[in-house]
UniProtKB/TrEMBL annotation:
GO terms for biological process: L-methylmalonyl-CoA metabolic process. Belongs to the methylmalonyl-CoA epimerase family. The gene is mce. It comes from Sphingomonas lutea. This is Methylmalonyl-CoA epimerase. It comes from the Bacteria. It is an enzyme of class 5 (isomerase). Keywords: Isomerase, Metal-binding. Residues 5-134 form the VOC domain.
Length: 137
C-alpha cells in the first residue's frame, strides 16, 4: 500500500473559537464552515483550509472524549494526529493488520463522511495516525 494524500492534521484544542481566532489573526484564515459536533467520536470539529490540506481543530465533547487525556497533559492543546487517505478502507485495514500494527477500535465514519480508523502512535514512531477513505466526489 502506498502513502496516500495528507488529508488533514488534527489539532486538539480546549477552545475551537480561540484557535480560530489565532488562525484568523495570524494567517487571515477563515473556518471551512461552522464548527459541528460528532458525538460518536466525542469531539466538536472545525476545519481550516490550507492550499494542500486542512487543519482539523478538535475540542472534547465531554470527560470521556478520546482527546480529554491529551488535553490534561497539554492544557493549551497541540498537534494530535495526522490523517492519510486510502482508496479502499477495508484493504488498508487488512494491510495494517497483516503488518501487526495495532488498530484503535473499529472502522467508523469520520468528519468527512467517509470511513476512518486509527493506528496506535506506539507503532507509528509516536505519531497517532488516522487512515481515511478518499471521498468520492
Ligand atoms: C473528527 C473526527 C475524526 C476525523 O474524522 O478526523 C477524528 O480525527 S477524531 C480524533 C480523536 N479520536 C481519537 O484520537 C481516536 C483514537 N485515539 C485513541 O484511541 C486514544 O486517544 C489513544 C491514542 C489510544 C490514547 O489513549 P489515551 O487513553 O487517551 O491516552 P494515554 O495517555 O493512555 O496514551 C497512551 C500512550 O499514547 C501516547 N499518546 C496518546 N495520545 C497521543 C497522540 N495524540 N500522539 C502521540 N502519542 C499519543 C501517550 O503519551 C501514552 O504514551 P506513554 O505515556 O509513553 O505511555
Ligand atoms: Co482526524
Amino acid at each position: 500500500m502506498k502513502l496516500g494524500r495528507l488529508n488533514h492534521v488534527g489539532v486538539a484544542t480546549p477552545s475551537i473559537e480561540r484557535s480560530l481566532e489565532t488562525y484568523r489573526t495570524l494567517f487571515g484564515a477563515e473556518p471551512h464552515g461552522e464548527p459541528f459536533d460528532l458525538p460518536a467520536q466525542g469531539v466538536r470539529v472545525c476545519f481550516v483550509d490550507a492550499p494542500n490540506s486542512q487543519i482539523e481543530l478538535i475540542e472534547p465533547l465531554g470527560a470521556d472524549s478520546p482527546i480529554a487525556r491529551f488535553l490534561e497533559k497539554n492544557a493549551e492543546g497541540g498537534q494530535h494526529h495526522v490523517c492519510f487517505e486510502a482508496e479502499d478502507i477495508d484493504e488498508a485495514r487488512a494491510h495494517f493488520e497483516g503488518k501487526g500494527v495495532r488498530i484503535l477500535g473499529p472502522t467508523r465514519i469520520g468528519a468527512h463522511g467517509t470511513p476512518i480508523f486509527f493506528l496506535h502512535p506506539k507503532d507509528m514512531g509516536g505519531v497517532l495516525t488516522e487512515i481515511m477513505e478518499t471521498p468520492k466526489h
